[in-house]
Design a protein that fits this description.
β9 (about 200-205) and β10 (about 210-215) form a beta hairpin. α3 crosses α4 (about 110-120). The protein is globular. It folds into 2 domains: about 5-220, Rossmann fold (3-Layer(aba) Sandwich), CATH 3.40.50.300; about 225-290, YebC, transcriptional regulation domain (Alpha-Beta Plaits), CATH 3.30.70.980. By secondary structure, the protein is of the alpha/beta class. The chain contains 11 helices and 14 strands.
Length: about 300
């Protein structure tokens, strides 16, 4: 096990009557990708802002790289990189100028143009930041977090608003940073992102940690079933609830996108019963898909609702 570079104990933060972070405790191992997974409003951004000294905590203990955030903020800044969801950029500077400016703030920065290329903005070097699209601004914010060559890189939902190709490219950047020995603290509400990238993660909801561990271990801990899903061909709520009687079925859900989700310990028997039922009702089962349980399923099981 690697040494812990971040230690958080009983962290709390409220805004009036809203408890944004409610007694959160965790540790992050050096050289890993650590994920904080949860829906919007779960407390992810607030946690990052407290860890990076942008907000004061109400209660709790925080140690990063052996230092206390509030007492040692200045030496810590040299060793951290931070990408926030809504960064304030200098609109009149172009991308090369801005990344070069940020690099000048650090003693041992990475090469600015190499970093710009990493995030896929090499063809926009002379573009003023005020003219960038939302996705391009997001990628630029990641570049600014990386260029300082910090030991820990905080990325707050870095792929939100990116197209699938750009998301994949940024996943590659995160993997490269890990290979360089960096620690990545990643917040996301994308389940596939967490499953692919994270060595360790916590799932947070309404300011509290509801699960923690390796993604594969968490799924295995809560599921022996497979997931069977299909587009609802106008089954009534009563009929969908009746799917619990199909052979092998242990749980039933209907998503906000009108997708019926069955958890089964015996997929062949469940599918046979489902098809017989659909034929008897005169309905077509479309988009039938059998898959392993995922973090989406885990969140739904633990909270009774989707993460979206």
């Amino acid at each position: 096990m690697n040494e812990s570079c971040i230690k958080v104990e009983n962290l709390k933060k409220s805004y009036g009557s809203v408890q944004a972070v409610d007694g959160v405790s965790f540790q992050v191992e050096s050289g890993t990708v650590f994920g904080m997974l949860g829906p919007n409003g779960a407390g992810k951004s607030t946690t990052i802002e407290i860890l990076t000294g942008l907000q004061a905590k109400d209660q709790g203990e925080i140690e990063i790289l052996g230092m206390e955030v509030e007492k040692d903020s200045q030496p810590l800044k040299e060793r951290l990189g931070v990408q926030l969801q809504s960064p304030a950029l200098f609109g009149k500077l172009n991308i090369r100028e801005l990344v070069t400016l940020f690099a000048s703030f650090y003693q041992d920065p990475l090469d600015p143009e190499t970093v710009i290329s990493l995030v896929g903005l090499e063809d926009k070097l002379k573009e003023k930041t005020e003219n960038l699209s939302g996705g391009q601004r997001h990628r630029l914010a990641v570049a600014l977090a990386i260029v300082g060559n910090g030991d820990i890189i905080f990325l707050d939902e870095p792929t939100t608003g990116l197209d699938p190709q750009s998301r994949r490219k940024l996943w590659g950047v995160i993997t490269e940073l890990k290979e360089l020995g960096k620690t990545i603290f990643l917040t996301t509400h994308y389940m596939d992102e967490a499953e692919i990238l994270c060595d360790q993660l916590i799932i947070i909801d309404r300011g509290k940690i509801i699960a923690s561990g390796r993604p594969d271990s968490l799924i295995a801990e809560h599921f022996t079933e497979d997931a069977l899903e299909f587009t609802n061909p106008s089954f009534t709520a009563s009929q969908i609830n009746g799917f619990k009687e199909l052979r092998g079925v242990t749980g039933v859900n209907l998503s906000s996108e009108d997708i019926v989700l069955l958890y089964t310990i015996n997929a062949p028997e469940t599918i046979a019963d489902l098809m017989a039922l659909a034929e008897n009702e005169g309905k077509n089962i479309n988009g039938l898909k059998l898959r392993k349980a995922s973090l989406d399923d885990l969140f739904l099981k633990l909270t009774g609702r989707e993460i979206r």
